[in-house]
Amino acid sequence: VIATISIIPDSALGLPIDELWDLGSLRKAASRLGELSGLAIRKDFRGSRGNIILPLSRLLKEYCQILGVDCLTIVTHPDVADFYRSLLLFTPVSKKSKGDAKVQGAPAFGQYLFLGSPWMQNLKSVFGVDENPHNIYRLMANPLPTNIVVPDSHYSNLGYAFQAAEYLKRLFDD
Asked: What is the spatial distance between Cα 54 and Cα 14, in angstroms, rounded to a whole number?
């Protein structure tokens, strides 16, 4: 395994971020919230200059559509919050970090991102449309390779996970 990340769709149980921030206004504005959780990239692949995180982000966008998630949230350490703001244009939930009891009181910083056309337009205005294979806008706007068949529901996600793994492997090998 090179990398992993989870999307937790909102439900009657809420999201882990709810323990730290009130997301009432986001819930009113979104059809369905989801929370990104558990991003892990194997240590020897972390310096790969986007070869893992960028394609993984593209696959996350597709999977959010399957789950009906149109607003993502994430809780990170404040030291890496800028990464998500600059890479995917996340917006802070609050200007202040909070202590997260689930991780021994470590500081936590919450952010959110509304997916859809306005977000894509923001990506285009920030990153442009140049031919760089790591251009976030181009990666998010272009269709997935034809050998990646996105399931029509979350019930068929196991096959999608295997296809996604192959997609990431090919991108890294190229």
From this structure: 28
What's the CA gap between 140 and 43, in Å, rounded?
25
Looking at every residue in the chain, the average pLDDT score rounds to: 83
Q: What is the DSSP letter of 105?
A: T
Residue 111's SS3 state is strand
For 64, counting Cβ atoms within 10 Å of its Cβ (0-12 exposed, 13-18 middle, 19+ buried), the class is: buried
pLDDT one-digit tens code per residue, 91-119: 999 988 888 767 777 889 999 999 989 99
Sequence-separated (6 or more) residues with CB below 8 Å from residue 70: 30, 31, 32, 64, 114, 115, 116
> Which of 132, 125, 131, 119 has its CA nearest to residue 51?
132
> Strand 33-41 relative to strand 71-76: parallel, antiparallel, unpaired?
parallel
Question: Do the Cβ atoms of 2 and 39 come closer than 8 Å?
Answer: no
Instruction: Determine the pLDDT at residue 146.
Output: 76
Q: What is the DSSP code string of 114-130?
A: E-SHHHHHHHHHHHTT-
Structural contact between residues 140 and 118, judged by C-beta atoms closer than 8 angstroms = no
- Give me the mean pLDDT over the 155-160 stretch: 49
CA 168 to the chain's CA centroid: 15
**Greatest extent of the chain over all pairs of C-alpha atoms, in Å:** 45
